[in-house]
Design a protein that fits this description.
Layout: H1 2-26, H2 34-46, H3 52-57, H4 63-72, H5 77-86, H6 88-101, H7 105-121, H8 125-130, H9 142-148, H10 155-171, H11 177-191, H12 196-209, H13 216-221, H14 224-234, H15 239-252, H16 267-277, H17 281-294, H18 300-306, H19 310-317, H20 324-342, H21 346-356, H22 364-367, H23 369-375, H24 381-396, H25 403-416, H26 420-426, H27 430-436, H28 442-456, H29 459-463, H30 467-470, H31 520-543, H32 547-551, H33 556-580, H34 584-594
Length: 599
């Protein structure tokens, strides 16, 4: 496993190098990756001259060490290769001593860059660094941990020291546990810093560190997956960092000991979010590979569905991919998700979508009347938890694409549930809807208005409103003018049969009751609506029939029809007042007059 992952990691680095070279040749002006920044800085450091004579005169290095470094420094690569081959043990010891004795940051960075160059070009030199432990039990790790432990160390020093230390730890037959925990903790500290260079140092070193399976559970125990999730979520503007973090997650998921931390760390949410937000193929490839590794974890597929993976997977299935591994991982994850969906009812899926906070009109539940008719009573489960989720989304969701959908769903609940309007009033969902009516987003404003009309006005009154009235601009003073109609709209009776004992029309406030209103026009219209509907209720009671039946016969039925039409027109006028006047007291009055609580 280590060899395969190591080969893949080297291939990724080669691909990054090739991409960097291509950008340089093409003159691309895009921001440099962390690897590019470190590479450029290393080239500058190696151009500097170090006064080895000064270190010799100050007795920081011996005469023999001085001769060794002078023969090696600034020499052609082929000369340096021969020296390392002939005296590898001496040079390994020399470089570690220089790190310990150097008193200038420039010298430390120079030596670190030399060591990194040596172990990259001649990997067998790592074994000679390991053998220095025969002279000092803390070597070869202590010189690097000491540098990382310094306060206010420069980012480039940390970059090289952490990279070299990770490489030595991965290649070492055994590493003291305290050294591993120190390095894991150091990486975690870098994640909390604000500078992308510090975070880049940590992620780059972690990619090497996690190549050894023994280290993965240790990092996971140190909240490693949660920290990586924070990077993935918080660094969307830095795709290279997101890719490297996803690569680290992928490496960790190869160890079953890490699987116990997958759900509690919320790393699945972060990876799915990366899939939804990024167009970069390499991030998609790495994210799908990581998700595929965790599909055996109990609850992982459900977590993917909750996070909203269905839509991006459907989108990915429509694209042509040249990477066979990506296609294979996509198919595997897609199949597992489909199996998970098969066990969920349509309402279970809806609940998961609402709980994820990622509502989308593309989901069939939102636009399906069949869904609302069959499942509207299930909204009562768990003390109306789904409605409370919607309320919180209306109140605090930062995603403007979610708010219109949430408004629409609240309106549909009010339309289909027998007591929907009363329940919405009791849960306090009208308030956030009223707030959204003042939104600058036209779609949010439109859906909030439609939802309030469904909540506050009967179905028949809604049918009397023309489509142009639903598009009113609330801030336009011209909207205040009454809408002229040459032909009154047809009356369509409500299909709902109201129980005689609980008829809400019969419980309307009696004419002349004292009802506070800040607007005389609104008060008069609402009182007219109340009186006419009260008359309808009395006619219904006398005839023993509902309004629909009365309308089909002579006598009081015809009178009932005329009064009902008048009531519906009055309620339509109330709805227009609501649309044109953003005054909570008017809304409160209309609500009390038009929608009294049962009993």
């Amino acid at each position: 496993e280590r060899n395969c992952i190591g080969i893949l990691f080297l291939a990724v680095r080669m691909a990054d190098n090739a991409a960097a070279d291509w950008r340089a040749k093409a003159g691309e002006s895009a921001a440099k990756t962390h690897y590019d920044i470190v590479k450029d800085q290393a080239a500058q450091v190696l151009k500097e001259d170090v006064s080895w004579e000064g270190y010799q005169k100050a007795n920081f290095i011996s005469d023999d060490d001085f001769k060794l470094i002078k023969r090696f420094d600034k020499k052609p690569p082929e000369v340096q290769a021969k020296l390392l081959q002939a005296e590898a043990d001496k040079y390994a010891e020399l470089f570690l001593q220089l790190l310990v004795k150097a008193n200038k940051d420039a010298t430390v960075q120079y030596v670190l860059t030399l060591i990194d160059q040596i172990i990259t070009e001649k990997p067998d030199m790592i074994n000679w660094f390991m053998r220095t432990s025969e002279k000092d039990a803390g070597w070869p790790f202590d010189p690097f941990t000491r540098l990382l432990n310094r306060a206010n160390a420069e980012w480039f020093t940390n970059s090289k020291a952490s990279s070299i230390l990770a490489t030595l730890m991965v290649k070492a037959p055994s590493v003291p546990e305290d050294k591993v925990k120190f390095f894991s903790g150091w990486i975690k500290e870098q994640f909390n810093k604000l500078d992308d260079r510090d975070i880049g140092n940590a992620v780059s070193a972690l990619q090497i560190f996690l190549l050894k399976s023994d280290f993965r559970p240790i990092f996971a125990q140190d909240s490693g997956l949660s920290m990586l999730g924070s990077v993935i979520r918080g660094k969307q503007k830095n795709p290279q960092l997101v890719y490297q973090a996803c690569n680290c997650v992928w490496l960790m998921t190869y160890s079953k000991e890490v699987h116990t931390y997958v759900l509690q760390s919320k790393i699945i949410d972060a990876i799915v979010n990366a899939l939804r937000m990024t167009p970069k193929e390499k991030i998609i490839r790495m994210s799908l590979a990581a998700l595929r590794n965790v599909t055996p974890v109990e609850g992982a597929v459900d977590a993917m569905i909750d996070a909203g993976i269905v839509k991006p997977l459907e989108s990915f299935k429509q694209r042509n991919w040249g990477d066979e591994d990506l296609v294979d991982d996509l198919a595997a994850v897609y199949n597992e998700v489909q199996k998970g969906l098969a066990h969920l009812s349509s309402f279970d899926m809806y609940k998961k979508e609402v709980a994820s906070g990622k509502l989308d009109f593309s989901s069939p539940a939102h636009r399906s009347e069949k869904f609302w008719r069959e499942n509207v009573t299930r909204f009562e489960e768990d003390h109306f938890r789904v409605l409370l989720y919607l309320k919180e989304l209306l109140r605090a969701s930062p995603d403007t694409s979610v708010l219109p959908v949430a408004c629409y769903d609240v309106g549909e609940f009010a339309r289909f549930h027998p007591r929907g309007r009363t329940i919405i009033s009791q849960l306090g969902i009208k308030d956030p809807l009223m707030q959204l009516m003042t939104s600058r987003d036209p779609e949010i404003k439109k859906q909030a208005l439609l939802a309030l009309q469904k909540v506050m006005v009967s179905d028949n009154a809604l049918r009397l409103l023309h489509a142009d009235e639903l598009q009113l601009r609330l801030n336009d003073p011209e909207v205040a003018r009454p809408v002229e109609r040459t032909v009154p709209p047809p009356f369509t009776p409500s299909p709902i049969r109201l129980p005689e004992a609980r008829c809400p029309i019969a419980n309307l406030p009696r004419p002349g009751a004292s009802v506070p209103s800040p607007d005389t026009n609104a008060r008069e219209v609402a009182e007219s609506a109340a009186r006419t509907q009260a008359d309808v209720a009395r006619l219904v009671a006398r005839s023993g029939q509902d309004t629909d039946e009365c309308a089909d016969h002579g006598g009081p039925g015809e009178q009932a029809r005329q009064i009902a039409e008048s009531a519906e027109r009055a309620h339509a006028a109330v709805a227009r007042l609501v649309a044109r006047k953003d005054e909570p007291l008017v809304v409160k009055f209309i609500t009390e007059a038009a929608n009294p609580a049962p009993g």
